[in-house]
Design goal:
It contains 16 helices and 19 strands. The protein is α/β, with parallel strands linked by helices and 488 residues long. It is globular and about 75 Å long. The longest helix is centred in the middle third of the chain and has 22 residues. It is 44% helix and 15% strand. A seven-stranded parallel beta sheet has the order 6-17-16-13-11-10-9.
């Protein structure tokens, strides 16, 4: 689909991880962690700030086996277990281009573009606030790379667009510049409905057709230990009622030297995730749900999150085990703390990448382009990360070959045979040192910058019916007028 735009890349495919996932938790550990998580939900409960202003959420809680006391919701353990069992172990997401449909669950592993950064970094201009131009360029890269299967949200926040209209402008751009699975931020029920409407127009579907199967997803993060913003949770349930997939990704922070264990972090994350899973199934049984993992340690010097630590990698593997025990698809995160696209950034991301592979993750969020604790996106880093993602996909496709005697002898010199066909690298330089030096001695990030520029220059938007594009444009204009009037 985009192979000619990016020389050296593999064809579009939905890769499968043939290797069994690793898990260091014993079976009895899995049972204990699940029991402890259910106890947390029953005794301590989940805090929902702003619950009084969300009538739809209050109604959902009232019809579930949930006890509310002010903004605290406590869950019956048997209810949670039953509801979690209603979510499918495997499902498909169908974007506006059905040829870009993806399978979530099983042995499939999908890779997503960077999302939610507030700033952008590149070699030419350095670090700066995100804008719509940078957001759209990153969307073009996401479309151009076949190894990227879905969008995790806005690659970078376009801060030149007013926040109340940002979801409209960005969703329209994502649907116009890509034909892959998109994400809707659960900023509130109205915002989620806006994005679903745009996705429906882009697909040329009536509302009943759109809600008949999942076509996009929302991701909800916890706002603190056992805390979810009520408006965000209400927006999440709005998407679930419309049949769209829900990813729940607790953000767990461990302070350096605090004595918090990996098992304790996993217990907290599981409790938070199960609360959302139960409510999602309550409003629409069978809604696809993805259990996510995102953890960090608070650094001892500046107190800022540090990603890619040994503890966070272990937590990813442990949460993968918990997701498998519940037969839920699992999302991991390719995180990095580094501020620029350098060796530290690539090492941290590679560690996170392979942790996701080892944990049997079905999706890897922020797989390409993440920098600086997720506060910055980078086109150079995007290209470098995609090279690594392709390596993983090729690794899965590499078999030992024939193992009978003749096959084993085929590797000897002079034995003939076709040998191994190595693909052309995307931006890596495999030439000898003298040749590399004579050709400008470019470092990896410099080559990636040139590669990104070539890809953007050659980019062609995917086909979109003019009537569908016009419907999106008209809807964005209409909603912008309504939102602007409401702010006056």
């Amino acid at each position: 689909m985009a192979s000619d735009v990016v020389p050296g890349q593999m064809p579009w495919s939905i890769p499968e991880n043939p290797d069994p996932p690793l898990g260091f938790l014993l079976p009895e550990d899995v049972i204990r962690i699940r029991r402890a998580a259910l106890r947390l939900l029953a005794e301590r409960g989940v805090e929902l700030p702003g619950l009084e202003g969300e009538a739809g959420l209050r109604q959902a809680l009232a019809t579930a086996r949930v006890r509310t006391d002010g903004n605290i919701a406590r869950f019956d353990p048997d209810f949670v277990v039953h509801m979690a069992g209603l979510a499918p172990a495997i499902f498909r997401l169908e974007p506006r281009n059905p040829a870009r449909s993806v399978t979530v669950g099983g042995q499939h592993m999908l890779f997503g573009a960077v999302a939610s950064a507030t700033e952008v970094w590149d070699l030419q201009r350095g670090r700066r606030s995100g804008d719509l131009a940078a957001c759209e360029d990153l969307l073009r890269l996401a479309q151009s790379f076949n190894c990227i299967h879905f969008l995790g949200g806005y690659p970078v926040e376009p801060q030149d667009i007013p926040p109340p209209m940002r979801h409209l402008v960005c969703a329209e751009a994502a649907l116009r510049l890509t034909d892959k699975v998109i994400h809707a931020y659960p900023l509130g029920p109205d915002a989620v409905r806006d994005v679903m409407t745009l996705a429906r127009f882009a697909s040329g579907l009536e509302e009943a057709e759109f809600t008949a199967k999942p076509r996009l997803y929302v991701n909800i993060n916890s706002a603190g230990p056992l805390v979810f913003d009520a408006s965000v949770l209400a927006a999440t349930l709005c998407a679930a009622r419309a049949g769209q997939a829900v990813m729940v990704t607790p953000l767990v922070m461990a302070e350096a030297g605090s004595g918090v264990t990996v098992a304790g972090m996993v217990t907290l994350a599981l409790a938070e995730a199960l609360a959302v899973v139960a409510l999602v199934q309550q409003v629409r049984p069978g809604t696809p749900v993805i259990l996510g993992a995102l953890s960090a340690c608070l650094g001892p010097t500046f107190g800022a999150p540090v990603f890619g630590t040994a503890e966070s990698l272990r937590m990813t593997e442990a949460l993968g085990q918990m997701a498998r025990s519940l037969q839920l698809p699992f999302r991991a995160t390719a995180a990095s703390t580094a501020n620029i696209a350098d060796a530290q950034a690539m090492a941290e991301t590679a560690n996170s990448l392979w942790s996701g592979v080892r944990s049997g993750a079905n999706l890897l969020q922020h797989a390409a382009g993440w920098l600086s604790r997720g506060t910055a996106a980078s086109m150079e880093k995007f290209v470098l990360d995609c090279e690594q993602i392709q390596l993983v996909q090729r690794y899965w496709q590499t078999s030992p070959g024939r193992t009978e005697d003749e096959g084993l002898l085929a590797g000897l010199p002079g034995a003939g045979g076709t040998g191994t066909a190595f693909p052309e690298p995307v931006s890596a330089d495999w030439r000898p040192y003298p040749v590399w030096e004579e050709d400008g001695a470019l470092w990896a990030s410099e080559r990636a910058a040139k590669c990104a520029r070539r890809i953007l220059d050659a980019y062609q938007p995917p086909a979109l019916d003019p009537a569908r594009a016009e419907a999106m444009t008209d809807f964005v204009a209409k909603r912008r007028r309504e939102l602007e009037a409401s702010l006056d």
